[in-house]
Specification:
By secondary structure, the protein is mostly beta strands. The protein is 0% helix and 44% strand. The protein is built from no helices and 13 strands. The chain has strands spanning 48-53, 56-58, 71-76, 79-81, 96-101, 104-107, 112-114, 128-134, 137-140, 143-147, 155-175, 183-205, 219-228. Strands 1, 2, 3, 4, 5, 6, 7, 8, 9, 10, 11, 12 and 13 form a 13-stranded parallel β-sheet that branches. The protein is globular.
Length: 229
């Protein structure tokens, strides 16, 4: 729908219709069929000064912690144990000034993924910027740390340091495709220890699945990596 520029008011899911006045009748777009979409477990939307400190979260049906359009976010001492596909641990999405530290994340999908919206929907929306991730232990079935694939609003000033990757298909993954557009820049990686990866320690993927045939290449530049072993 984003690719096809469908207006947001017409993107109706949930119970399949839009009830604006609470009378139980369809007041807008929809197909009348239920859409069983899996929800995020914890999602803060357009919030400031968010602190998530030392909870244990288990078996989210979708992304576990997903702050969106937030500012001044601190996630500290979090323990995540996933169990389903797309159970990302922590996904800051189009947020500014985020600290993620001292966390243990064990998921089937990405452990930590920095995001900033998808395709045309996100080109005029805020980037994800000023993200500091440190002293975390990541155990993933796919990507331990990644940027994307939803990153069309841009990702900049990301710092990952003093982290321990225990397991993953890929250790560090930066993923997008020719639908995405956007820019990823000023990413700093240092002092990262990797125990086991099944395919790649470090990967830039420009052909992520779901491609719809556009030609909006992502700009990826100004990466710095040191002491990754």
């Amino acid at each position: 729908m984003g690719n096809d520029l469908v207006p947001e008011a017409q993107r109706v899911f949930g119970n399949g219709f839009l009830d604006l006045n609470g009378d139980g009748q369809d007041d807008g777009y929809g197909d009348g069929q239920p859409h069983w979409l899996r929800p995020s477990l914890v999602e803060f939307y357009e919030c400031e000064n968010v602190l998530i400190a030392e909870p244990t979260l288990r078996i989210s049906l979708f992304w576990t912690v997903h702050p969106v359009f937030c500012r001044n976010v601190c996630i500290r001492g979090l323990r995540v144990y996933g169990g389903y596909l797309n159970d990302d641990g922590i996904d800051p999405d189009s947020c500014t000034d985020v600290l993620i530290e001292d966390c243990y994340i064990e998921t089937k999908d990405d452990a930590i993924s920095i995001k900033a919206g998808r395709d045309q929907d996100a080109w005029q929306r805020p980037p994800c910027r000023n993200i500091l991730i440190r002293n975390c232990r990541l155990n993933s079935g796919v990507n331990s740390f990644c940027v994307g694939s939803e990153m069309s609003g841009g990702v900049e000033n990301g710092f990952v340091e003093d982290c321990h990757i225990l397991n993953g298909k890929h250790g560090l993954n930066f993923k997008c495709n020719l639908d995405r557009g956007g820019q990823v820049q000023h990413i700093y990686l240092r002092n990262i220890t990797i125990d086991t990866v099944r395919e790649a320690m470090f990967i830039f993927r420009m052909d992520y699945h779901g491609y719809r045939g556009n030609n909006y290449p992502t700009k990826i530049n100004k990466f710095y990596a040191a002491n990754i072993e």
